[in-house]
Automatic annotation (TrEMBL):
<dbReference type="InterPro" id="IPR004872">
    <property type="entry name" value="Lipoprotein_NlpA"/>
</dbReference>
<dbReference type="Pfam" id="PF03180">
    <property type="entry name" value="Lipoprotein_9"/>
</dbReference>
<keyword id="KW-0472">Membrane</keyword>
<keyword id="KW-0732">Signal</keyword>
<keyword id="KW-0449">Lipoprotein</keyword>
<comment type="similarity">
    <text>Belongs to the nlpA lipoprotein family.</text>
</comment>
<feature type="signal peptide">
    <location>
        <begin position="1"/>
        <end position="23"/>
    </location>
</feature>
<keyword id="KW-0564">Palmitate</keyword>
<protein>
    <recommendedName>
        <fullName>Lipoprotein</fullName>
    </recommendedName>
</protein>
Length: 277
C-alpha cells in the first residue's frame, strides 16, 4: 500500500521538518535505512503519479520495496534527503538543484541515467488569448526561485515579449531585462501560488506540475510553452552524494526510464508531460 505524507510549505523549519517526517515513518525502518524500503520524496503531480505507477505495476516484479512521500514545495524534498529523512527525491531539474546546493551547502546529486521527464513551462492567462494581446503595463507573475524565474524570463524572451542582457544564463531576474517594449511588470511568487494568481494578474508563467494540479494543460491551455528538444530542465531521481550506487536506487532509476513508464507518461499526460529518455 502507498504510504504518503503530504507536507505543506508551512513545514519548512528544521525542527518542524523532523517532526513532520518522523511522525509518518515506515515501520520497516528509518527512511535512510539501506536494508529497508526505498523512501522517495516527490511532488504530487506528475512525479508522485509516475512513482505510484511504478510502485503498483513494476516494483514488485523487480524486487523493489518502494515507499512514496509527497511534498507540495520545492525546498523540503532536498532538505529531507540531506538530513536522511528520505533516501531519494524526484521533483527537480539540474539548474534548480545546482542553485539549491550552492545556497544551502547541501550535496544532493542526480542519479546517473535517472532523468525521467520534462514538464514544459507555460504562459497562462484568463485575460488574453494570445501573448500579443497583453496591454502596455500588464502584470506577469513568475516563479520567485532563482532558476525557474530565469527559465520563465527566457520563455518570455524567446517569444518576443522582452529581451534579456547577454550572458545572464540560469540566474536572470527582472533586473536583467534589457528591453521591455510593453513595459511589463513582473510579480514574483512562490511557484505553487502561481495558478491561484491568474485572476489577479494579466498572465502567469507556471511550472508544469503546478499547472497540472490546477487542471491546466501546457499542451492545450498555455499561450506558449517550452519546447522539449535540447531542454536542460528534465526532472530526475536524486540522492545524497555517495548513495548513487545503492542497488535500490539503481533499480528504481531503471524502472523510471523503462518503456512502460514512457508509455504511461504519453498516455496519461497527452503532451503536458513528456518523457526525457
Amino acid at each position: 500500500m502507498r504510504n504518503t505524507a503530504k507536507i505543506t510549505t508551512a513545514v519548512l523549519a528544521a525542527g518542524a521538518l523532523t517532526l513532520g517526517l518522523g511522525a509518518c515513518g515506515s515501520d520497516k525502518g528509518s527512511a535512510g535505512d539501506k536494508d529497508g524500503p526505498l523512501v522517495v520524496a516527490a511532488t504530487p503531480t506528475p512525479q508522485g503519479q509516475i512513482l505510484d505507477y511504478v510502485q503498483k505495476n513494476l516494483a514488485k516484479k523487480a524486487g523493489l520495496d518502494l515507499e512514496i512521500r509527497e511534498f507540495t514545495d520545492y525546498v523540503t524534498p532536498n532538505t529531507a534527503v540531506q538530513q536522511g529523512e528520505v533516501f531519494a527525491n524526484y521533483f527537480q531539474h539540474k539548474p534548480y538543484l545546482d542553485d539549491f546546493n550552492k545556497k544551502n551547502g547541501t550535496d544532493v546529486v542526480p542519479v546517473p541515467n535517472g532523468t525521467v521527464h520534462l514538464e514544459p513551462l507555460g504562459v497562462y492567462s484568463k485575460k488574453v488569448k494570445k501573448l500579443g494581446e497583453l496591454k502596455d503595463g500588464a502584470t506577469v507573475a513568475v516563479p520567485n526561485d532563482t532558476t525557474n524565474e530565469a527559465r520563465a524570463l527566457k520563455l518570455l524572451a524567446d517569444n518576443g515579449l522582452i529581451e534579456l542582457k547577454k550572458g545572464v544564463g540560469y540566474e536572470a531576474t527582472p533586473k536583467d531585462v534589457a528591453k521591455n517594449p510593453k513595459n511589463l511588470k513582473f510579480k514574483e511568487l512562490e511557484a505553487a501560488q502561481l495558478p491561484r494568481s491568474l485572476s489577479d494578474v494579466d498572465a502567469a508563467v507556471i511550472n508544469g506540475n503546478y499547472a497540472l494540479e490546477a487542471e491546466l494543460s501546457p499542451a492545450k491551455d498555455a499561450l506558449v510553452a517550452e519546447k522539449a528538444k535540447g531542454n536542460p530542465y528534465g526532472n530526475f531521481l536524486a540522492v545524497k552524494k555517495g548513495d548513487e550506487n545503492d542497488p535500490r536506487v539503481k533499480k528504481l532509476a531503471k524502472l523510471l526510464t523503462s518503456p512502460e513508464v514512457k508509455k504511461f507518461i504519453a498516455d496519461k499526460y497527452d503532451g503536458a508531460v513528456v518523457a526525457a529518455f
